[in-house]
Amino acid sequence: MCVGGCRRHGGHGCSPRSGPDDSDAHRTTVPTQGAVCRQSLTPVPRTASLWSGSGTCQHHTYVLDTCVLLADPAALLRFEEHDVVLPLVVIEEPDRKQTLMDEIGSNDRRSIRLLEEQGASAAGGLSQAVSLPSGGTLRIEMNGIHSVHLPEVLDPHTPDHRILSTCLELRADGTDAVLVTKDAALRIKGAQLGVPVQDYRADIVAVDESYSGVVEVAGDATTIDRIYADGKAILEMEAPLVNQFVIVKGPSSQSALAQVVEVSPRTTVVRVPGTRRVFGVESKNLRQAFALELLLNPDIPAVSLMGAPGTGKTFLALAAGLEQVLEAGRYRKVSVYRPLVAVGRQELGYLPGDLDEKLAPWMAAVHDNLYALFSDAGPAAARDALDELVERDALELAAITYLRGRSITGEFVIIDEAQNLELSTLKVILTRIGPDAKVVFCGDFTQVDNPYVSPFGGAAAMIEKMKGH
User: Fold this and answer.
1) Do 170 and 149 meet the contact criterion of CB atoms below 8 Å apart?
2) Which residue, of 183, 333, 422, 440, is most buried by count of CB atoms within 10 Å of its CB?
3) Domain of 394, in residue numbers
4) Which of 198, 226, 250 is a domain's end point?
5) Is the model's pLDDT at 31 over the cut of 50?
């Protein structure tokens, strides 16, 4: 599990902005035992352009696949001075998703509106290139079915093959066309046909799987004594990050656990306990103790718990949330949201039953954790306790879609399976969190089920933008 926290500044929550200077977000991450934690090596600007190895920008024509618009509705504006071409089939495919009430449907509607703003529904449409605010151009390509360049083995009526056909036609005319898609299979097909391909890069970061967020630092006996006596100390360490946890090793068997709270003018650390107990749950290792330290800190409004299955991500978050709602009274409610990644390829609206029954497949893991927290009272009493919490509006389980447009105040919010959310959705969530609320992102980078999210985008990109604050 990766754990990370974002400290409050001036009473406001965290809201990373999009753009080349995404360096003002406030978070760092620490993986708990058994975790796979990806962290950026270098900042990646919020752009999708392909740069030449010489350091100068070559002019390209980017042909976008449907999944790019469904992952990032503003993708059209992220290619700087380059030309963007949309095969007509890219407009046809999202049109069938506009009625979906999940993030894909929302992103689809936003991308269609953006196309209209660029003149797609005006007289003549976008058959001729129009200028974009980014400095490039945009046009819709009508061809794709009757290409003589598409191999006979590929059906020209298949949407993906029509996109490939468009790329082949453009390149045959001398255009330096590059196919941009988040579909790995389509990238492979394109490469076999000689079409330059690339993943959509605007929501992807370079990652370092060795980053743990916990470092060991050598310290003298005086420093360790000061950490225990005063609860804090000045510590000499290389490249410290705010919220980073530190294991200070003394010259003999002495050691102390601390957390970085300040890096300028000098690195200041505060002591943290090696074990924590909350809502009847005791941490089983240092990483879980560090996670609870962040979950229980009211000055940290945004926390991430990312890591492998079984490391206690959702369980610890629920325990900390219930403790602070039912015992401490710090928040009025625990709200758990999950993305609606289709089960068995069935969309929410086509599943039987009312809304609660439709959500049941997505919420089963959350229910299991909640029952485990109340298991001492027995199965029947646990169900009654949870029903009472729901009736008192102290507990809510909902789809992530229902967060859009809300302003969250006084709530302990858990976003489960956060690895399946696009970066744009994560930003929306962060902007919904008020000054007296807390949001916790739980997930596993190795279990991305959303075809429109890269393991190195979404939550990984959000973590990078928040690291060290």
Assistant:
1) no
2) 440
3) 2-35+275-466
4) 198
5) no
Residue 331 pLDDT > 50: yes
CA distances in angstroms from 139 to 84, 129, 134, 162, listed in the order given: 7, 4, 14, 16
Q: Does 206 map to a domain?
A: no
Q: Is 316 in contact with 292 (CB distance < 8 Å)?
A: yes
State residue 313 phi and psi, 5-degree precision: -60, -65
Please state the pTM of the whole predicted model.
0.72
CATH number of residue 390's parent domain: 3.40.50.300
Cβ atoms of 161 and 153 within 8 Å: the answer is no
DSSP characters over 303-349: EEEE-STTS-HHHHHHHHHHIIIIIS-S-SEEEEEE--PPBTTB-GG
**Residues 80/47, Cβ–Cβ less than 8 Å:** yes
- CA-closest candidate to residue 182, choices 57, 53, 101, 75: 75
Domain-ending residue, one of 163, 179, 198 = 198
- The one-letter code for the residue type at 443 is G
- Residue 464: what pLDDT? 77
Q: Are residues 78 and 14 in the same domain?
A: no
CA distance 184 to 55: 27
Q: Is 261 helix (H, G, I), strand (E, B) or coil?
A: strand
Dihedral sign for Cα 194, 195, 196, 197, please.
negative
Going across the sheet that includes 255-262, the strands are: 214-218, 245-249, 255-262, 268-271, 232-234
Which residue's entry shows tokens 């976003």? Answer: 415
Is the domain of 14 the same as that of 82? no
What Rg value do the Cα atoms of the chain yield, rounded? 25
Please indicate, yes or no, whether residues 27 and 66 belong to a single structural domain of this protein.
no
Residue 18: exposed, middle, or buried by beta-carbon count in 10 A (0-12, 13-18, 19+)? middle
| Lookup: tokens for 431 | 């902007």
Would you call 283 helix, strand, or coil by DSSP?
coil
Here the tokens at position 168 are 């082949």
Tell me which of 37 and 393 has the higher pLDDT.
393
**What burial class does residue 126 get, using C-beta atoms within 10 Å of its C-beta: 0-12 exposed, 13-18 middle, 19+ buried?**
buried
Mean pLDDT, range 319-329, rounded to an integer: 96
